[in-house]
Amino acid sequence: MHHFAYRNGVLHAEDASIEAIAAAVGTPFYCYSAATLRRHVRVFREAFGGLDALVAYSVKANANLAVLKLLANEGAGADVVSGGELRRARAAGVPAARIVFSGVGKTREEMALALDEGIHQFNVESEPELDALNDVAQSKGTKASIAFRVNPDVKAGGHEKISTGKAEDKFGVAWTRARDLYRRAASLPGIAVKGVDLHIGSQIADLAPFEAAFAKVAELVKSLRADGIAIERLDVGGGLGVPYGDAPADPPHPEEYARLIRRIAEPLGVQLICEPGRMIAGNAGVLVARVIYDKEGERRRFLILDAGMNDLIRPALYDAWHDIRPVREPAPDSARTVYDVVGPVCESSDVFARARALPPLRAGDLVAIMTAGAYGAVLSSQYNARPLAPEVLVSGGRFAVTRRRPSFEDMIALETTPDWLNG
Ligand code: LLP
């Protein structure tokens, strides 16, 4: 459920006209709906009522400070995967006690930062990482609270590039080694074993793989307890898909997913942690662009936008399908024209949609690329020396630019030309 809809013939984000925002901000830009973001956190809050639960929003999905602050105000914590994300979460007001740190390549510097901040938990992904963390914690005279991210060897996820829970993936520790590793970790002076963690993939469109993985992990929790290791937390990761509009069936509703998590975690008597990303931010955002040209090619007709793969890379990287809507509501009976919707970047993969039937559009018209709130702006770049698209947050009828478009001077500010190149 999201808050983007036509009103008086114009696409609105909540009560704000996208046309009016475009006039004020210019295109392309990302537009997020505060009400949608809030609603998604509340689904969990309601489903987990009465339990000790931490919704650690996965910052990688959308790391805009205003988005993080809004979610923190709703009581969300953060799942971070770098020192930078940790600092962003802290800068946005997420309490350190609600932060979990995931990722296969944490450096000692990042570990030190996280220990100094006093984060809730490290999700440890390998034995060398465990040893490094033990060292760093000992050198600080403290203990690092950890869970191992165990790899349950379950296939899940919308695209092979976003599947993480199979045995051949780089993530997590092998299922077969988990008990040994836990025993070792429990003997280390710089480590406090707290829980078990998993994450099996992203854009998962049905509950079956979750159910299979959670059931396996619940068994592991029992075995570890039988080994004398006190497991008091279970982190079930993220991964629930959102409807992009291309699949015959929508992914399960977040409420059903949350109920499944509750069903697994409650009998174990653990603190429940989850790390949703896409499910919180995905359909809370759109990328708004303007048509530059309608180009009649030899074989195809191209709609060339002023947004490109540098702004939204998902179609190029994962063959992702995003709905594209004209900002001016088309008449229901308007004719459709088949376009390849492309950007201006000099790469043949700079394509948002191939052979898409759209109402007639002309140069100057605005379009919204839907469901772009997660893994959109965070994955953007300045390729082709294109400025990063600004990000706008709408709440009711208000909007605010929460990341401005960089000026040309901003874009070159980190670069220098050495003196020896002059003359
Ligand atoms: N926790 C961990 C350890 C993760 O690796 C991820 C996502 C999440 C939580 C959040 O997963 P979500 O609820 O958002 O599915 N860029 C890709 C998705 C990459 C996901 C990476 N890990 C895309 O645009 O589809």
TrEMBL record:
A GO BP entry: lysine biosynthetic process via diaminopimelate
Residues annotated for pyridoxal 5'-phosphate binding in this entry: 239, 275-278, 375
SUPFAM superfamilies membership: Alanine racemase C-terminal domain-like, PLP-binding barrel
PROSITE patterns in alphabetical order: ODR_DC_2_2 (PS00879)
Cofactor(s) required, per the database record: pyridoxal 5'-phosphate
Pathway: Amino-acid biosynthesis; L-lysine biosynthesis via DAP pathway; L-lysine from DL-2,6-diaminopimelate: step 1/1
Gene Ontology MF annotations: diaminopimelate decarboxylase activity; pyridoxal phosphate binding
Protein's UniProt keywords contain Cell membrane: no
Record-annotated Orn/DAP/Arg decarboxylase 2 N-terminal domain positions: 35-281
Keywords on record: Amino-acid biosynthesis, Decarboxylase, Lyase, Lysine biosynthesis, Pyridoxal phosphate
Top-level EC class as recorded in UniProt: lyase
Coiled-coil ranges from the UniProt annotation: none
Pfam families recorded: Orn_Arg_deC_N, Orn_DAP_Arg_deC
Reaction catalysis annotation: meso-2,6-diaminopimelate + H(+) = L-lysine + CO2
EC number of this enzyme: 4.1.1.20
Keyword Nucleotide-binding annotated: no
InterPro entries the record matches: Ala_racemase/Decarboxylase_C, DAP_deCOOHase_LysA, De-COase2_C, De-COase2_CS, De-COase2_N, Orn/DAP/Arg_de-COase, PLP-binding_barrel
Record-annotated active site: 346 (proton donor)
UniProt family annotation: Belongs to the Orn/Lys/Arg decarboxylase class-II family. LysA subfamily.
PANTHER family from the UniProt entry: DIAMINOPIMELATE DECARBOXYLASE, GROUP IV DECARBOXYLASE
Function: Specifically catalyzes the decarboxylation of meso-diaminopimelate (meso-DAP) to L-lysine.
Subunit text: Homodimer.
Protein name stated in the entry: Diaminopimelate decarboxylase
Organism expressing this protein natively: Amphiplicatus metriothermophilus
